[in-house]
Amino acid sequence: MPSFMTQVDRQQWDVIVVGAGGAGLRAAIEARERGARTAVICKSLFGKAHTVMAEGGIAASMGNVNGHDNWQVHFRDTMRGGKFLNQWRMAELHAQEAPDRVWELETWGALFDRTADGRISQRNFGGHEYPRLAHVGDRTGLELIRTLQQKIVQLQQQDFKETGDHESGLKVFQECTVTRVLKDGDRVAGTFCYERESGRFFVLEAPAVVLATGGIGKSFKTTSNSWEYTGDGHALALLAGAPLLNMEFVQFHPTGMVWPPSVKGILVTESVRGDGGVLRNSEGKRFMFDYVPDVFKEKYAESEEEGDRWYEDPDHNRRPPELLPRDEVARAINAEVKAGRGSPHGGVFLDVSTRMPAETIRRRLPSMYHQFKELADVDITAEPMEVGPTCHYVMGGVAVDSETAAAVGVPGLFAAGEVAGGMHGSNRLGGNSLSDLLVFGRRAGLHAAEHAAAAADRPGVAQREIDAAAQEALAPFHADEGAENPYTLHQELQQTMNDLVGIIRRDAEMREALERLAVLRTRAARAGVEGHRQFNPGWHLALDLRNMLLVSECVAKAALERTESRGGHTREDCPGMDRAWRPVNLLCRPVVPAPADPAADRIALVRCATDPIRPDLLALFEKEELVKYLSEEEL
Amino acid sequence: MTSYDASFRVWRGDPEGGELRDFTVEVHDGEVVLDIIHRLQATQAPDLAVRWNCKAGKCGSCSAEINGRPRLMCMTRMSVFDRTDTITVTPLRAFPVVRDLVTDVGFNYEKARSIPAFVPPPGVAAGEYRMQQIDVDRSQEFRKCIECFLCQDTCHVVRDHEDNKPSFAGPRFLMRIAELDMHPLDAAASEGLDRKRTAQDDHGLGYCNITKCCTEVCPEGIHITDNALIPLKERAADRKYDPLVWLGNKIGRRRDG
Amino acid sequence: MATGTEPPVRLSGVHHPSRAAIAARHLRTDRWWLAPAGTAAGLLAFIAYSTWRAFANADYYAAPYVSPFYSPCLAENCVPMRNGPNWDLFGSWWGLSPALLILVFPLGFRLTCYYYRKAYYRGFWASPPACAVAEPHSGYTGESRFPLVFQNMHRYFFYAALPVAGILTYDTVLTFRDAQYAWGHMGLGTLLFLVNIVLIWAYTLSCHSCRHIIGGRLRHFSKHPVRYRLWGLAGKLNARHTLLAWSSLISVALCDLYVYLLATGAFDDPRLF
Question: Residue B52 domain-assigned?
Fold first, then answer.
């Protein structure tokens, strides 16, 4: 290895937040308000994070529309949705704190849709017993991001008044990528970063780093996720020595666009169904009535008439099965298409045009109306949409402490939002993501700030670490003859994951996936790019490939290990949910030291048992329901 | 599925200089301009710089000028062009260029910082906010903004006059002032901040000559001119140019419905 | 007007050194010049016609119709109109056309109107000629300084436009007479005047200042339900402000032309009953 000294700009901060979506911004606000000098670093422009894509709303049991709602009911729904695999303490904190997090947004200027008495309006959503989602039309994520962004600007204006510098206490490094979390011994010491625009390297030094990088969808071919979702935070945590939890659980959103090809995967919000949209197959049948699983039989309507009445009178009717949790609906659509009852472009029909007047559709679902009009030339007020499952969300993620969001085993590392695991168990309910961001974003920021303040001495970043990180980042420029094209590798990776570790999984296919991943790792080690470091998308992709390959290995390994079907993990060869698996978590640990041979495994899988659910929380459920989920000894 | 070869002219360069380069590139059914730019990246120009993100018209990253008109690349379907058209794609021409199709939009972030934030009403606890839908409708329309900055790009006040940049916030941020001024609970006045007056005095509302290009380019269809800028001008007129209102205020009859 | 091929005046605007180096002042491929050219042509035609008619001081009354250009007629030299809008406020010293006395108000209303401002800034000043087409001026201060800061007076012209519209309504009522001043008759001119007065009112009430005064200035619509409803109606009209601006401009000119043709004896008013 040639020895060289990388001269880089070093800056000192108290807390570094990687990612500027909902969780990252909420963490940054909290850290700064607790007095920590906070740096936010994000791959896109400030305010463009993937959170803007969230449409439906923020789940919080404020009880504004139905007074029966409270945190216990929300907790119950979350656990049910996650098939009891959730870190129950996270689900509890989430349900308890979500209303405060939503109300707080109003004090920062957010404008939610209102009820007649002037409170925040709440809408129905799959898996939620009561109308619970605070929303703004179908652009709730945008409202969330903009509110947090404007709160950050307000804090910066405050800092400007005091110090004459907007960025003295809170700075956003936009269009920058973090390639390594740097450590001093066991402790976190900072991050190694580059500016996407110039390719210039720099180092941020801090005793606390919050990962808030979102998900991994770009490892799959059909996904609702943007290019940013390359599993960076997952990989950074692994490379820093922190394990990932339950990576086999990947949520396929039931309704993504299927045509035209260039927008395949883009989300069609669940509110379409929450507001009355129905799913039909090519025979015109509302097929969801055939797919209600036993555990949900009592909760869902048995006839179309009852389902239709529910929209008007939810207290005396059961909800239509279109509003089952996402995993159930996604599987049902998958099965219909496989049985040859799909739509022309390989999906099923989602229809609102026969259910609501055109004017109502345009008012309640404005972005959907536009999305289809502009991208697919389909008028959803006049004809049905074609939809199919799309990779949407990863339930698995960095294993964290429920209270503090601290990553397991790496002092100073925190994770919040999609990159953190545990909260949603095996399947996330719609609307629980935005509330998750706020609740645990705040907790991560709070505890990161406390961690930074409590550090007796600041950790240092060794030159050796910087050199190694720089060398790793520059490797794609030094590829030899016959270098691999990163775009090609990425496409093959996406195809592999989609086909072999997708929505329906089989033992042999996952083994094949792991073999292919090993080959891809070897080829990726030779990935090369042309040109220079300024805004070079090929180079950026080559670096992101490392992360996607690591994360994909975790998903495939864990999925192969878990021999049951549960939530976002469906095995054709093990179709049933197995109570014995309920208390089992799968941890992906990095192989240390990292093997020199790129084909060798980088991940070691460890089984661990979950903490028993606290009795008072268990008491929220009926005994008959619990026996469906919990093993004998747990009961 | 059908496909054809389209002629593209794409600006390539940096602050030192650049030129429009010709490309011939394959186009498939249902594609948008951004797809074609990506195909160029993957097949002919691997280091072509372009900013994008959601690819669904929701994040406002992929702003560019297509045949001279400010647009989102992800929301411009290829089917709106003739197959024989040459499609010209350039970076936004109101902002400093960084490379190829990427511009430095820092101007907008500076302006965002210059607008005083929402002031929460004193004495109203979180959770106690009560607002009627009809009172939030107006501001909600403005909050649909995805900050693509196409309105900032097309506005001739700064597009054609670099020297106006320090004194003019641009449609997006004048609309932000309107949004806050129409917010039913904003308490700026309690801190001595008159948003109507500062819109005119500090943020250059008077530069706007309501020629409506901002409204024309808005991908969200926000009626920026009719619903934000003109009402804001009228509100500024209340404060600054209306002697009746001025007199009313002087004798203590504040009429702030 | 800019043609799109002139060389840059100086290194400003889209040719500023920091911007992407593109020589063309715009790259639009559509017929962007059509709208400003059409606007300019339409406005010029109206200006030419109305100037001729306003200075003519003749042929503006043909019982029972009075040209809207001459109503109300405020000087002694006005043609006497039975029950018509003769209000001799100025007396005999005024020797010019009486139209000039009253046209100031509608002219000012339209000159400061937010739509017409857009139209003539684009059509006559090329500021800008069309969106993303560079304007030919080297400096720009918009409506921030004298004299254009006076555009903020629009609301006063709106106030003034209300009584004028009221008087034109009165004139329209008078058209339900025949040439001998007998009530209960209608002619083709009556229909024309009716259409015109509806358009005049719609244009006046669709004004942005009106929308503001009626309700736009309120912060809490919920506390003012009546004004909120009125604001909603004004908003609906306001969305058609451009259309109303043009159609009322044309209808007012047509009414005048109709009176002129009757007064000069070009043809007789076809009576309906």
Answer: yes
